[in-house]
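hey
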């Protein structure tokens, strides 16, 4: 399969949800069966990080062809300029029998089916920011191969896919590693550093065709569950094994991909965000670790830091004052 040329257009795809949307939590609780299903860290939008991510995108990725926002119907951020972003709800690209879905693995697995999507796109979670200029070459090599940001920390081996008491995320990593081991041989695979995921749709289709049953099981799970694969982990390692990807040097990863856990320690948040702003890595992940009850002081400290870092509204926002 020929890889796309280096000058092919690149789209950007975000996934987002806000559990404060009327009726969402009730729907979530009706479908949930475990405590992991109700984890607010994965559905909370108390900081509007997506808004600041789009500001950083407008500033540092002006070459992006089209920006998509994927969410459940009828959610749309009230501040979003819908004429500048292609909003796609789950029911427009996911089979009806699998809805509603709260399973990020199932949603990510279906992203290449978005209408009008370029062959090459970058998947960005809504807790990611860009801290300085990012070029297409940070995602795709000159020969078309995907760049993989693999960290040193190992992921659970395939033998742990049925271990009790393990989080659904780690079970999916183990399941993905088991599939890779069966096809390409057992080996250690690191976590993917906190950078957006570059995707070539034709290579993604080849991955799905390799493991159709695993993807079918994942698509049918309303929540993350045992037996699911983590597509964002399986895909880059499938590409590495098939010669369609290249690893980014770890010295580059240390400089350009950073992680900031958002928690209730206000002083540490102020220090951590100031550090991020000072060093301005290309990619930053602001992961929600607040737990059940975010501290108002910590939230205020983080919100203030985000506004100082990216104060200028982007074309992706409606004019100030035109929404409530």
């Amino acid at each position: 399969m020929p890889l796309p040329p280096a000058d092919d257009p690149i789209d950007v795809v975000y996934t987002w949800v806000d559990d404060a949307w009327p009726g969402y939590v009730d729907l979530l609780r009706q479908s949930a069966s475990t405590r992991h299903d109700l984890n607010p860290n994965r559905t909370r939008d108390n900081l509007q990080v997506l808004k600041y991510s789009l500001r950083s995108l407008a500033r540092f990725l002006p070459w992006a062809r089209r920006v998509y926002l994927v969410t459940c119907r009828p959610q749309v951020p009230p501040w979003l300029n819908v004429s500048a972003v292609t909003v796609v709800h789950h029911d427009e690209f996911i089979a009806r029998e699998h809805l509603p879905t709260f399973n990020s693995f199932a949603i990510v697995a279906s992203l290449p089916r978005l209408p009008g999507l370029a062959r090459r796109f970058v998947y960005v979670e809504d807790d990611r920011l860009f801290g300085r200029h990012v070029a297409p070459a940070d995602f795709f090599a000159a020969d078309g191969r995907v760049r993989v940001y693999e960290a040193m920390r190992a992921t659970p081996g395939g033998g742990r896919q049925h271990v009790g008491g393990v989080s659904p995320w780690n079970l999916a990593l183990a399941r993905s590693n088991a599939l890779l081991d069966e096809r390409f041989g057992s080996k250690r695979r690191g976590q993917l550093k906190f950078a957006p995921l570059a995707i070539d749709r034709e290579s993604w289709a080849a991955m799905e065709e390799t493991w159709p049953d695993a993807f079918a099981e994942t698509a049918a799970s309303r929540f993350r569950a045992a037996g699911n694969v983590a597509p964002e982990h399986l895909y880059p390692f499938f590409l590495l094994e098939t010669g369609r990807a290249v690893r980014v040097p770890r010295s580059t990863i240390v400089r350009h991909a950073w992680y900031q856990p958002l928690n209730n320690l206000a002083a540490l948040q102020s220090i951590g965000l100031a550090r991020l702003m000072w060093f301005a890595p290309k990619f930053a992940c602001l992961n929600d670790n607040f737990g059940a009850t975010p501290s108002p002081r910590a939230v205020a400290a983080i919100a203030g830091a985000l506004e100082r870092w990216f104060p200028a509204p982007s074309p992706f926002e409606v004019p100030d004052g035109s929404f409530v």
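The chain has a mean pLDDT of 94. The longest helix spans residues 168-184.
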